[in-house]
Design a protein that fits this description.
396 residues, mainly alpha, two-stranded antiparallel sheet, two-stranded antiparallel ribbon, 65% helix
Length: 396
Amino acid sequence: MAVTTGAPLTDWLMSTEFPNTSFFSNITESYLEEVEEAEEEEEEFDALRVNKILFIYVAPVLIFVGVFGNTLSLAVLQSKHFRNAPSSFILSALAVVDTGVLLTGLLRHWIKNMTGGKLDVRNLSPGGCKMHYLMTYMLPQLSSWTLVLMTVERLMSVVIPLKAREVCSRTRMLTAWFIIFGCLFAINGHAFKTLTLYTFPRVIGNNMIISKVCFYTRSTSHFALKVWPWIDIMLLSLIPVIIMFGSNIVIIIQVVRATKKLSEQMSAKGCGKANATQSLTIMLIAISIVFLFTTTPVSIYFLGLHIWPRTTPKQQFETQVAYSSLNLLYYFNAVLNFFMYCISGARFRQALIAILCCRDVAPRKTTLAATSTRGHTETTKVRNGAVTIANSVTLD
């Protein structure tokens, strides 16, 4: 996300409403002295130490686990047993995007905290300021809408199963994803207009250094601080959550009906369909809830940032701890998908074990169940008695 952590100077710049009071045209020594005093007193507040612990120790664990898990997911999804499925591209794209989310956002915070705020990749160059900001916002939104696209693909497979392969062909899914990518890039392209890299002198002791801060221009500060947070929460969380919940409800209803009908046909065979349906329902609800509770809180934080009390250094540090906690909670969303696939998909687990053990995967067996209806025989295919979960390619 856009608010930074690390050196208090940058934190205060990013969290105060100085653009409305022409901050950069009225920087004074008294303000800089106040910042330095806050830096000297920071150890008095446990909140700041917690903030640093979260980003210095928890962040690298999330980065390593997330990048490693997403890399394994990509390897499995691009194996010969998955790569031709339309959904495999979406899941592969999601793994790449989630990795980008971790490396552009969380990695930056970790570097800033490890260097005491002395190194911020966003402040290295004017171009880097604009592009890094754009990617920090666009990639999380792209991850959300990739999940939406995946859910819609699953919805088509249960609502119009006979036409789903045609409607959701690999080419169309690929086209849809790139259209989403282009739209989000255009929307977030305001960064090229609203951001600039400010440079100003700063006196520390007997030395004068040149400080750089990537922030909004004075003319666009109202849009950036008041309007954009609402657009971001709509694209990142609110609209995707509404679509996913609505689609998953329809998916659950359709799958329960189909499973009940198939269970009646297969009752003589004793296939455990009730358990499969129960697992499916729980997984569908869990995916939507996990997405909701990992993406929404940090967006709400930004919406309410300017009305929360931050008049004392302690309140400011506590606000930073709230941000750090919610930010890390959000990044869990980019880490958990691999584990969701492993829990929900037997076929995914088999392919993963095969890759790790350098062996081939035996093809899944398809059972044929014959049932007599109105004097003639109908043959129904059952894929290991399992129902594919939403938000995943045919992983079972």
